[in-house]
Design goal:
Helix content of chain B: 25-40%
Helix content of chain A: 25-40%
Number of helices of chain B: 24
Oligomer: heterodimer
CATH superfamily of one domain in chain B: Dimethylsulfoxide Reductase, domain 2
Structural class of chain B: alpha/beta
Strand content of chain B: 15-25%
Order of helices and strands of chain A: HHHHEHHHH
Shape of chain B: globular
Strand order of the largest sheet of chain B: 6-5-17-16-15-7
Radius of gyration of chain B: 27 Å
Structural class of chain A: mainly alpha
Distance between the termini of chain A: 35 Å
Strand content of chain A: under 5%
Radius of gyration of chain A: 21 Å
Distance between the termini of chain B: 14 Å
CATH architecture of one domain in chain B: 3-Layer(aba) Sandwich
CATH class of one domain in chain B: Alpha Beta
Largest sheet of chain A: none
CATH topology of one domain in chain B: Dimethylsulfoxide Reductase, domain 2
Shape of chain A: globular
Number of strands of chain A: 1
Chain lengths: 183, 769
């Protein structure tokens, strides 16, 4: 047998002050999130730490890619804004609103949002999606994400199955080779 | 575990966890605001310098957003950090040209090691037990300052000792300056497999006390005496790349490679021809080859200092006729003649070497005999004879930056005693050793047991370690002030070899420190400021020192400066201004001049001497730096533990290599447990039957056998150093680690301690299950 176990009896098994004894790293917001993720259950409209009103911001002509999801133009994931991103504007704007006060208080405590994921592929699909080429091809955000700019909290109202992707790829003469998405 | 049981186990543990959490309010994750701007999903590449050996290869580090568990204001949570994810070779770096060895790849585990020391510690139990309590940085530094004040006040500043790392680096330069200003001797650096003998020989032969750089890429014939230049010796990444070019990089020319050694090493296994030789007689073979070259006038001899140092040279080396050489080395006379003609080149030999002489290399065990200096000088002389020094395809010396001049350092500490002498002094009743600082090195593991280094440490009243791990040396420390990992701090080193042009490898931190650690240099500068008699060093931080010293170098790109360039590219390379270039006769790192008396005494030892009676201990013992762990300093990295040895495929274990014929005579089978005994100790390990070893030689890789070195290395395998006789090469004091004789005895059947990745053991297991 391969014996590669730690030598707990010898001094190699020492735990010194300040060293972590943790085996697992926190990867989900809580146990129910982890369980839902494990069994592949994703709510269409998960509860978010703040009720972010997309339509208000869209009405002020703040583009999705400008501040909050800026990584979308350059990389695979769009990114979710941190408290700091909000405070770029809200240090001065609408500081008297209750939600902004809530965010300011979080910032002062040094805490950040624990956003919950809305759009996702099941791991079994083995899909690797990269936002940046879609932005370069001038695909509108709403094509895949639905009319998010008309609502408040983000919700999944488009069923992103393979047919959905392939239809659009065919229409736009984008590649439909398997390895385009499944690699 | 198979897939099915994994799924079952998941189901069971999942249910258990769900039941256990019933009735408890769910513990919600807290996410803290990150300190840095992180673009999600996108990597940046930052330069760094590999810390694991003195070749100082350049790295590029893939840095990306990651989540770290942290505690802030008493609350546990996660925060996004920029973290190093992967190390690769820096393509622009003149030493490694984008290559990186397996050890370098595994270096990232230094940073994320679960047993890394995360904060300052103070000893609570007995020394060597490893019980420590947390202490704040301020309190820890105050203790060091108080102790140094006490030493200075009592007028015993000279009794402060420092175990430092080897090689030329800004770190070592600043440590030297610190010690000089305090009044203490220079740091001691001890390397079991260090090449001080070759440095000394090169200083005598060529005026450079440094390891040579070989232009293998343009060589046509390489005659290698014992060095493992493709695995562990000198600058292996640079040499491997050049070797590839030598064999396959030129149209119609495939360089020829002959390996002379008593063991077929990883490097030897790549050779066209293996010349087994009696241990320690490499120099004799070299002079035998020189004899034939002179006698047959194969190539007009080149007059040189190196040849002048060999007795009998002017008369054509009459003592080294091929027949005599055969008697001494065991290499047949006609083979000596053939090797000589091939090596020197000429019309009647291998077509590829007609136009250009070969280059001879010496390293490893050939230097580690009592006559190591003789061997090295003989091979230097051979290179000088055929004109392979300073020419394409030959050997040369990398121009060296004088860091002390570049940093305008004024202090010159008094030379340090040898480690052996220091240990003897510390153990003597008149010992005056007051304090010891240890910079992450582990000489207790690698020094011959007869030096009693551990006992010497036990007598030192105050020991501070700056290491990141608890090992055999740092477990003796009273205070541990952990350094940042190399990825978290500024680094700067001058590679001794591996590049034709001058190189300084340097870089800034690629990520923020994961733990409550501090850069050792910054701690020393802080201590220097707080002393009763402050040191008044001109820099507040290591970064300031680097910035100031790089001002002495010209910029590599127009409109920039050398330090900005270095931080972008991972170093500086080019033509060193004369003012800050090390002069050949005072070359780093040992700074010595050719000392005629010691050379003569070194040369009088043409024959090796061995410790142990040949009748009682019939085998030569040949420890060698392991491909995974070198001398043991990387045994804590699990990737290297699980990396199969290239020749035996063994992993997570130790073994002793024995010739199959010898083993059959002694009734030893593959994997049997054996006792290997010298006059100085016994180690128990597994036998590995290797046809690539002389019948009277036993070889054993170093690196395993740690008692205290993290969960992965502690209590695993055996350490060949336990057998070593305290025999040294006279002129340098370097350990002659190949000069011990041993015997071997079978203890019992294999007990699974030898783990092979491939081979009969694994097949056995798989068929029998």
């Amino acid at each position: 047998m391969l014996d590669t176990s730690p030598q707990s009896a010898s001094s190699g098994g020492l735990v010194l002050p300040g060293q972590s004894t943790a085996v697992f790293t926190t990867a989900r917001a809580g146990f129910s999130d982890a369980l839902n993720d494990f069994i592949g259950r994703h709510p269409n409209k998960p509860e978010q730490p703040v009720e972010f009103p997309h339509k208000t911001h869209y009405a002020k002509k703040i583009a999705c890619t400008e501040y909050c999801h800026e990584a979308v133009v350059s990389g695979p994931v769009a990114g979710l804004p941190s408290v700091r991103t909000c405070m770029v504007c809200h240090n001065a704007i609408a500081t008297d609103r209750p939600r902004i006060k809530q965010i300011t208080a979080m910032r002062d405590r040094g805490e950040d949002f624990v956003w919950r994921r809305v759009f996702n592929y099941t791991p079994q699909a083995h899909v690797k999606f990269n936002h940046a080429p879609h932005i370069r091809a001038k695909v509108n955000c709403t094509t895949c994400h639905g009319p998010i700019h008309e609502g408040t909290v983000a919700q999944r109202n488009v069923d992103m199955n393979m047919g959905f992707c392939v239809n659009c790829h065919n229409e736009r003469k984008a590649p439909v080779d398997c390895l385009t998405c499944h690699f | 575990m198979d897939r099915r049981s994994f799924i079952k186990l998941t189901a069971v543990s999942g249910t258990t966890a769900a039941l256990a959490s019933c009735g408890n309010p769910e513990h919600q994750l807290i996410r803290f605001v990150p300190d840095e701007d992180i673009v999600p999903g996108q990597a940046v590449w930052k330069p760094s310098v590999c810390p694991l050996c003195p070749s100082a290869c350049g790295l590029t580090v893939r840095v990306m957003g990651a989540e770290a568990d942290v505690v802030r204001n008493g609350k546990a949570g996660v925060v996004q950090i920029l973290a190093a994810k992967k190390l690769e070779g820096n393509p622009e770096h003149p030493v490694n040209h984008g290559g990186l060895c397996a050890r370098g790849q595994a270096a990232i585990q230094v940073t994320y090691h679960p047993d890394r020391i995360a904060q300052p510690l103070k000893r609570t139990g007995n020394r060597g037990v490893g019980s420590y309590e947390a202490i704040t940085w301020d309190a820890a530094i105050a203790e060091v300052v108080a102790k140094l004040n006490e030493i200075a006040a009592s007028g015993q500043a000279g009794s402060l000792a420092f175990f430092g790392r080897s090689g030329s680096s800004y770190r070592n330069a600043l440590i030297g300056e610190f010690l000089a200003r305090f009044g203490a001797p220079a740091p001691m650096s001890y390397d079991l497999f260090g090449d001080d003998v070759l440095r000394r020989a090169n200083a005598v032969s060529f005026g450079f006390a440094q390891l040579p750089t070989f232009d293998f890429a343009q060589s046509r014939y390489v005659l290698n005496f014992g060095s493992d230049f493709l695995g562990t010796w000198n600058a292996p990444v640079s040499q491997s790349r050049a070797y590839g070019d030598m064999r396959q990089g030129r149209r119609g020319v495939r360089g020829h490679f002959v390996h002379v050694d008593s063991r077929l090493s990883q490097t030897g296994a790549s050779a066209d021809e293996w010349v087994p030789i009696r241990p320690g007689t490499e120099g004799v073979l070299a002079l035998g080859i020189a004899h034939v070259v002179i006698r047959d006038k194969v190539r007009p001899a080149v007059a040189d200092r190196a040849t002048a140092a060999i007795a009998g040279w002017k008369d054509g080396l009459p003592d080294y006729a091929p027949e005599r050489v055969e008697e001494m080395t065991g290499v047949k006379a006609n083979r000596v003649e053939r090797l000589a003609r091939e090596f020197a080149g000429g019309p009647s030999v291998l077509p590829q070497v007609r136009t250009q002489p070969g280059v001879a290399v010496i390293g490893g065990a050939a230097l580690a005999h009592t006559n190591g200096l003789f061997n090295a000088l003989a091979i230097n002389a051979l290179n000088a004879l055929v004109g392979s020094v300073g020419v394409p395809g030959g050997l040369a010396f990398t121009p060296q930056l004088d860091i002390l001049a570049a940093a305008k350092m004024t202090g010159r500490p008094t030379p340090a005693a040898s480690l052996r002498q220091w240990a003897a002094d510390a153990l003597s009743s008149a010992s005056s050793v007051q304090a010891l600082l240890v910079d992450g090195v582990n000489p207790v593991f690698t020094a011959p047991r007869a030096w009693k280094l551990r006992d010497a440490l036990a007598k030192v009243p105050f020991i501070v370690s700056f290491g990141s791990f608890l090992d055999e040396t740092s477990v003796m420390a009273d205070l541990i002030l952990p350094d940042h990992s190399f990825l978290e701090s500024f680094t700067g080193a001058v590679p001794e070899s591996g590049s034709a042009m001058a190189v300084v490898s340097a870089a800034g931190p690629v990520m923020k420190p994961l733990h409550q650690t501090r850069a050792t240099i910054d701690v020393l500068l802080d201590v220097g400021r707080q002393l009763e008699k402050p040191m008044e060093l001109p820099w507040q931080t290591f970064e300031e020192m680097l910035t100031a010293s790089f001002a002495a170098l010209p910029a590599m790109t127009e409109g920039s400066d050398a330090w900005t360039d270095a931080q972008e590219k991972g170093g500086w390379w080019g033509e060193i201004p004369a003012a800050v270039r090390l002069k050949p006769d005072t070359a780093s790192p040992v700074r010595l001049k050719a000392d005629t008396t010691s050379v003569v005494s070194g040369l009088s030892r043409t024959q090796p001497e061995f410790d142990g009676d040949a009748a009682q201990y019939p085998f030569h013992f040949l420890p060698y730096p392991s491909n995974q762990f070198l001398d043991g300093s990387t045994a804590h990295l699990p990737w290297l533990q699980e990396m199969p040895d290239p020749l035996t495929s063994a992993m997570w274990s130790s073994w002793v290599e024995i010739n199959p014929a010898t083993a059959a005579k002694l009734g030893i089978a593959q994997g049997d447990v054996v006792d290997v005994t010298s006059a100085h100790g016994t180690v128990q390990t597994a036998a590995f039957l290797s046809p690539g070893i002389a019948p009277d030689v036993l070889a054993m890789p170093a690196g395993q056998g740690h008692t205290t070195f993290t969960r992965y290395a502690s209590g695993r395998g055996a350490n060949p150093v336990d057998l070593l006789a305290p025999v040294t090469e006279e002129s340098t004091g370097a350990v002659a680690w190949a000069a011990t004789r041993v015997k071997i005895a079978r203890v019992g059947d294999g007990d699974g301690r030898l783990i092979l990745f491939a081979g009969e053991f694994r097949e056995h297991q798989e068929h029998g299950r």
